[in-house]
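[job 4471] stage=fold_predict status=RUNNING
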Amino acid sequence: MECVFATSLYTEGSRWRLGSLDASQLAVLGRSGTTDGAGGRVAELDAMDHAVLDALVRDGRTRLTELAALTGSSAATVRRRLGRLTASGIVALRCDMAPAVSGLPVSVTFRGRAVARDVNRLHHTLATLPECRLLAAVTGAANVLATYWLRDIGSVQRRETAVCARLPGLDVTDRVLGIRTVKRMGQVLDGEGRRVGTCRIHPW
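[job 4471] inference complete, writing structure tokens
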């Protein structure tokens, strides 16, 4: 077994977009988000923050009114708290789906090697490629790691060919095909990637 550490995270699931919304729909979604917090850095989480985050880990679709009842506050107060937490970067909003529903059922992780001076440039290029779910600089002999959701197994070779054509300085050393994901961000998934339960994460 090998353990590697991410030294830089360039993109991950909360930043991934399927591209199914047009500009007007994205504008409406942006206006409806919890972005009315004070912003700035959050020095320390208090009991209310913990209660809100624990509830959202169990169900990220919990309504503001339910969170307010849980914490003994108002929906407006909860909205401000969430705005503050998201503006500070402590909380990121993420909407996920079963890969089969997205039309991208095949998951592949490429590991590769590049000289240190090229790593940032390589990652900025890789992150712009379609279907990129995760992109990180990592420790170890292979210092680049990228995960893509693709349409079929044949797309694995096509994606690698496209990557290497654009980035001749990258040497792909490994390709790991994901057959099934049993858990994602604390959500337990069935064989089709649909949520069937929660295994709570508690990093705070």
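[job 4471] summary: Helices lie at 23-32, 47-58, 64-71, 75-88, 99-102, 119-127, 154-166.
[job 4471] exit 0
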